Amino acid sequence: MTEFRRDPITGKWVIIAAGRAKRPDYFKKEQKQGDVVVSCPFCPGNEDKTPKEIRVDPMEAGQNPYWRIRVVPNLYPAAGIIKEGLERPQKLGLYSTMKGYGAHEVIIESPHHNIPFEDQPIEHLMLLFMRFKERVIDLYKDDQIKQVVLYKNHGREAGASISHPHSQLITLPFVPDDLKEELNGARAYYAKEKSCIWCDILMQEMRTNLQIFDETGTSIVRADPLKERVVFENRGFVALCPFASKFPYEMHIIPKRHSHYFGNFGEKENFQEIKDLAEIFKTVIKKLNKALLGIYPESVPYNFFLHTSPNLKFRWNEDKFKTLEFDFHWHFEIHPRTSIEAGFEKGSGSYINVVAPEIASKELRDAPLEIQPSV
Ligand SMILES: [Zn+2]
Ligand SMILES: [Zn+2]
Ligand SMILES: [Zn+2]
Q1: N or C, fewer C-beta in 10 Å, the chain?
Q2: Residue 269 CB coordination number (10 Å)
Q3: Ligand nearest 257 Cα, by number?
Q4: pTM over 0.85
């Protein structure tokens, strides 16, 4: 039984997913037979250990395994898949509660247990990003879904319970708090400046030797070095360490083409855009592993997630999304899990980041790649 509960003081929603703690920890008991891990529910031969596929990309006929990417419902859903329709929040005195309507899906990225995301060929990653996009478009056809949260946990420290490469998505009947803050900030910026803040951030970050003025607007305090926080760029995307990074080596991957909605990505068969996203992801994760090789000899634990527009067809949308198409700009965020949130972060919601983004971006830029990507 899953239930959404709203905190009466902060207005934040929490998902109460009783029973989810019982999900097994597959890391403990990996028995390998060549490339296949016998106990892994995502390895070929174990397809019956997951619920029936929502979507499968087949291999060429007669090949084994028969699939390249599988999308399946999560066996231990956090957000619940409730058959009956979404109901408006109910009041319990001060409290608000809502039944857990939604979906929780797993995207099994490849049949290979030991080939991580960043070592997949570009063509395979392109297919994966297309599947991400299709799932978002498909789920947004349901007017009871307000937001898709698509994410990946890599490594135990990042919350993965199965090491087989996979990503997940959860749908919500509300906009979660971090995204809500971005939406509100973007809308307020647009109301004042009549432009998208991500487009303006890209312009500022990519500009040559931007001059910085003091508050009176006259004297130059210092000149920012060229593209100081940029880690990598190609035709379609920029990966940068944000000016106010919360975590060491935090990176955002921002499309150069303005669009509020990930569903518009790679539209009209824009294969170059899909290829660019696959390439930049592969490059920056490889660079992250290289830069932190001394601390994480295998790979750096991280989460990545998509920030995209809420479903504009949601049945109870208020009219506050009027300028969203112009003010919001979809992007991915990569948060390496090199530090844990401690008392200060928990108690304040503020973060102490011990690696300045300008240092992190330089280390990542300088981290060599074995194979230079083709742009
Ligand atoms: Zn596996
Ligand atoms: Zn924009
Ligand atoms: Zn974001």
Answers
A1: N
A2: 8
A3: 2
A4: yes
